Each structure stands twice: as C-alpha cells, then as structure tokens.
Amino acid sequence: MPADLVLLSARLLDPGTGRFLPHTALAAEHGRISFLGDDREARALAGPGSTVVDLRGAVVTAGLTDGHLHPVSGAERTMGADLSACRDLPAVRTALAEAARNLRPGAWLRGWGLDPNAFGTAPVGHASLGPVLDGIPAFIDLFDAHSLIASERALELAGVDGPRSFDQGSEIVCDADGRPTGLLLEDAACALVEAVAPRPTDAELRARTARVLGAMAASGLTGGHAMDANGGSLAVYAALEAEDALPLRLRVAPWCRPDADDATVDGLVRAQGTGGRLWQVAGVKLFMDGTIDNGTAWLESPDCHGESAAAHWPDPRRYTDVITALHRAGVPTATHAIGDAAVRHVLDSVEKAQAEAPGSVREPAKGSVRHPAPGSAPWPVRHRVEHIETVPDDTVRRFAPLGVAASMQPTHCCEFTRADHTDNWSRRLGDERAARAFRCRDLWEAGARVVLGSDWPIAPYPPLQVMAGARHRRPADLSLPPHGPGQALTPLQALQGMTVNAAWAAGEEDDAGRLSVGRRADLTVLAEDPLAVPDTDLAALPVLLTVVGGRTTHRAADL
Predict the structure, then answer these.
(1) Closest CA to 117 of 133, 128, 131, 132
(2) N or C: which end of the chain has fewer CB within 10 A?
(3) Distance from C-alpha of 504 to C-alpha of 482, rounded to nearest angstrom
(4) How would you list the strands of the sheet with 384-387, edge to edge?
(5) Are 234 and 260 spatial neighbours (Cβ–Cβ below 8 Å)?
(6) Of all residues in the chain, what percent are helix, strand and coil, respectively (each to 5)?
(7) pLDDT (tens digit, 9 = 90+) per residue, 128-181?
C-alpha cells in the first residue's frame, strides 16, 4: 500500500539523543512512521495519492508539544483588546480609549494580557484607568488570567457592591470604605462579572478557535496539553474534528474545584478516555494556589505585603483526599502550584497517595481510541506540578523520587520578571525567594522530568519562543539582561522539554516524542538545526512544515 506521506532530502533529528539519524527520508502510513531510509527507497513507497515533499536539507524532528495551554478558553479570552504590549498606564488608557471608540452603544469592552507592572505605584483597579471606561461595562483580564479589573458599570450590572465570602481562595478587593475597586481575584470572584457579560455564539467561538489552532500549527506545534475543559471546549474539539479542521493533537484535563464532592470526582474519573481521534480527556487539573502577583499564591511565609499566606483549597486535607482518590482510580493529575508551600503540599499529597495505592496504573477507558503501544504494559499514573515559580532546594530534590513531572513556563520568567527584582513579582517575594525563580535547570539536574509550555494565553504560544526563553532567560525582544542565567537549559534540554519529556508526562514515551518506525507521524520541520541556532535567533527560525498523524497541517509557501 502506498505511503500517505513521503519526506525526501531531510535531516532527521532525534530529540532523544540530539543526533541526526543516518537517513535522508521518512514515510508515514496510517498516521505512523512506517519507513526511515534513503530517498530512492522512499520514492518507491509513494503512490498517486501520496504527499511527497522534497525538504532540500531541512531538519525534521519529533512534533513539538506545548505542555500547558488553554486553546478554547484562550481563544475566547483573546477576542478583546490586546493590552500585553502596554508598559505603563498612559499606554493602557490609550489602548482602551481606542477600543471604546469602536464599541456599539451599550456593548461590553473586553481586554486581556494586562501586566500589573504597567500600574507602577498606582493601585491596580478601575480608578487608575481614568475616565476612559466611564459608563462602559468592561472587564479586563490581567495577564495571569487569575484576576480581572471590572469597570464601575460592569460591577453595577453584576450586583457587586461590596466584599463577599467564597468557598475557595477568591476576593472582591475593596477600599477602606468597603467599595469595590474593580480588582477581582481568582475564579469565584471573577465569575460574578463574567456571568453577566455577553458570550460569543457557538459558531463564533468555533471559528475563533479554529484560527488560533491553525496559527499554533503554523508555529510548529503538533500537540498540546489543554489544561481545562471549561464551557463548551469539548464540543468545540469534537465539532472541529468532525469538520477535519483540528490541526493539533490535544490531551485535555478538566478542572476539579475545591467544592467538588465525591460524586463530582467520580464523574471526572468516568470521563477519562473519552474524546475523538486527535483529542481525549486524559487527567484532571487542580489548583493549590493562585498567583504571586495577586497575593493569592501559597507561600511558607507571607509575601512582603503580608499576603499569599493561604491555599486555594480552604481545607488542604480535602485536596489530599481527592489526589488519593484519583490516583487510586488510575487518573493522572496536574496541579497549579506556584508558591513553595503549595508545591510542597502537592508533593506531600502525591507521596501519600502513592503509599496508599503503590500499584495503581491507568487502564485504557472503555471505548477509548488511545491504547498502549503493542506489547507494552498499562501505563503508570504520572502526576505533575504546573508552574513551580519559587521553591527551596529540598523541594527541588523531591520531584524525581516521586516521579512527578515539573511543568514549567520559562517565558513567564522572561516576560514578567526582571533580573534586578524591580518587577511586581520579585518585589512581593523579596530578594531571597525571587532569586530562586523558575528553577528549570536545578530541577532537571535533580532528575525531574521538565516539561515546557506557554500557558497560552498567559504568554505567547510559539514553541520556538518558549524554547528560546528556556535557553536565554530574557524577554522576546532581548531588551533586558537574563533573569537567573544559571537556570537556563541547554539547546537539547529545551528541545526535549517539548518532545521527549512531554511524551513521558503523558505516559506516551513509546508512542511519541522521538523519531522511529512505529511512532506517531507527528513532525515539525525547521529550516535549520534548532540545536545549532544561537539562543537569541531561535524564535525566528522558520517553520517549514507541520505534520500531525501523517497529515500536513502547515506548509510554508516556499516549500
């Protein structure tokens, strides 16, 4: 039978070794690599319906996977005004005024990506934005997506006129007289305004998501670990796949909130393995804390404002019970844990779960389209911690013995913190804790599996930019010195963080992440060797071809 895809005149880079294979051609059939050899033999495998591409010496590597992103909720969140480039309040006000001028009467204004550093010493709230939002219902996501600023009109429409208590770590920030400032912290508080704001139609959201995913494929991504199933996310994936318009392979982890009862947890277990050919529910996402910038992280001692002293779960013991129940059921977990106390509690909980159910393995769900590689044993339950922004040495050393993956977003350090500690994140932590920022290299050298991702829309998704940030620890425009250069990864480590280690964290190390016959034909083709390109040039390296399951999802115009 002819091959579906034949790639000729290629340099085949295996991320597992960092070396080029002694072959110049690759063929794929039924979604998997079926041949590695020379061009002459590969040409013989092509038929009338085959896609044959002469790569003219370009580099083929295993498909790049983003270890942490939010495709559908991010697509919706970024439908508003992009404020991510605003560095001070005048720039924010100008951008909002322009967006307001284009609004229909009575329409809501949405914004996203606002860095709290833009406020300088001014309070983070609607008063600092001036009169630009007077009478306009608006909500503006801060860059971390854990907080937003609501205008006075939006608060009025939502019925928010003072402080409230929540069943999870959330807050309506109020002034000394009890009046809301517009700053809402964490999900439960933000949801009050989001509930009354207009939402896109299903068709609009599906179209927007398709455009985002297409752009992700063009950036070289073949897959992603989607860290939510909020709203209609799963329906969007199903609809796009039915239209043959899903260009990424997605592994989806629905949220488990602090108010989840046992029946809810059981429902998350039953959902495992459901999905389609390219997307599947696989794992559960939890939150142990919020963010350092908001004062909602969980630190072992409070930050310099006396904040970040409590967990997102009012009763952290309940979190431990849930982790144990999911582990016993064979369900992997991914927990957002930024502060040192939060990370420690996650590791304590995993250690307890492993002690109570040491033999747990994740069996394929009934009806699942995903199976272990032929002849392999069922895959183990692999838990992971997301973000890990500041942790001490003893915590770094615990990841490897527990088999817990360290899911890191190096561009968060590059774009939102500063080497001189003048940024909001560092000022809140103080010099000692800010000096142990995003310890990618220390975790790697301690034996942890470091998985790299963007957390889009928090930071840009292009994987070469993520890998570059992991290597040079500087903002994308290279305008500042590196923050913690000793924590930089090598070129090979950065590549493995988005290939080999991403596959391992998903329990798919025999199925993905490397180049060999029988593995998935998920491939990223680059103009040059990413291991030889200078750190500062990597983000601009052209992506020539992206292939998912043997199907081309992006092809450069000149290829």
Answers:
(1) 128
(2) N
(3) 29
(4) 284-287, 333-337, 384-387, 405-408, 450-452
(5) no
(6) 35, 20, 45
(7) 998 999 999 999 998 888 889 999 999 999 999 999 998 888 999 999 999 999
When pLDDT is averaged across residues 445-452 and rounded to a whole number, the result is 98
- The candidate with the shortest Cα–Cα distance to 66, out of 414, 456, 389, is 456
CB 444 within 8 A of CB 374: no
What phi, psi does 53 have (nearest 5°)? -130, 125
Which of 184, 113, 100, 191 lies closest to 150 in space, CA to CA? 184
Q: What is the DSSP string of 74-107?
A: HHHHTTSEE-TT--SHHHHHHHHHHHHHTPPTT-
Q: Hey, which residues does 451 pair with through a beta bridge?
A: 407
Spatial CA neighbour of 470 closest among 447, 438, 435: 438
pLDDT (average), residues 476-483:
95
54-93: pLDDT as tens digits:
999 999 999 999 999 999 999 999 998 999 889 999 999 9
Q: Cβ(382)–Cβ(367) under 8 Å?
A: no
Q: What is the 3-state secondary structure (H, E, C) of 302-350?
A: CCCCCCCECCCCCCHHHHHHHHHHHHHCCCCEEEEECCHHHHHHHHHHH
| Cα(150)–Cα(552) distance, integer angstroms | 43
**Which of 517, 519, 526 lies closest to 495 in space, CA to CA?**
526
pLDDT, position 366: 37
Count other C-beta atoms under 10 Å from residue 334's C-beta.
25
**Amino acid sitting at position 460:** P
Rounded distance between C-alpha atoms, residue 182 and residue 151, angstroms: 6
Q: How far apart are CA 285 and CA 510, in angstroms?
A: 24
The sheet that has 51-54: what strands, in order across it?
32-37, 25-29, 5-8, 51-54
Q: Give dist(CA 53, CA 44) in Å, integer.
A: 14
- Inform me whether the pLDDT recorded for 373 exceeds 60: no
Task: Using alpha carbons, list the distances in angstroms from residue 291 to 121, 139, 298, 428.
Answer: 19, 19, 8, 11
Query: What integer pLDDT is reported at residue 192 of this predicted model?
Result: 94
In sequence order, the 6+-apart residues with CB closer than 8 A to the CB of 172 are 160, 162, 163, 164, 180, 184, 185, 189, 192
How far apart are alpha carbons 527 and 541 in whole angstroms?
Answer: 7
pLDDT at 180: 92
pTM: 0.92
Residue 195 backbone dihedrals phi, psi, to 5 degrees:
-65, -25
* pLDDT single digits (tens) 264-294: 999 999 999 999 999 999 999 999 999 999 8
Using alpha carbons, select from 341, 335, 306 the residue that is nearest to residue 319: 335
Which amino acid type is present at position 542? P
Say what the pLDDT of residue 211 is: 97
